[in-house]
Amino acid sequence: MAGATSGIDLFEFARRGACLAGELGHRELSRLGPMLAGAPRLQYTLRGHVDARGRPAARLTLAATLPLRCDRCGLPLPCVLDHQADFYFVASAAELDAIPIDDEPSEPLLAETGFDPAALAEDEAILALPISPRHTACPAPAAEAGAAASAMAPAADRPREAERQLPFAGLAQMLRGRPRRGH
Fold it and tell me: pTM for the full model?
């Protein structure tokens, strides 16, 4: 189910323990989609309940494998998203504004008639993404793999300084033997 769910009474939704579930594809993920390296499928479930404080609430569960790009090598990096977020509903913007900022794990949400569970799922998916996705060990192209292996080899296996070819080693000597201009 994608798009706004108009006419839903979120207080009743929570009281009844109702459930909404859906799957969002690339077309429905207008903000998340451009951040990805491929076409995602994001599954979500919103299950209503009354929380321990007696507030109408809901738990959002997200499941997806999102195709990110590694910040180091730029290659695709699958990100398994298995995320849950808890929310409680408030009746008015004034009530929402009066809630102090604290470390409570549940977030307040305004119980609007045009509530959009798909938009909430997309928002939470964006917030759950790693800031800088990276492979644990980036896959290296064949040419780079050889150079990396040589640099990682034990000192006994590396060429000694005297045996190593240094590209500019003879440059200073060449310049000394060259006649100067204008003198």
Answer: 0.70
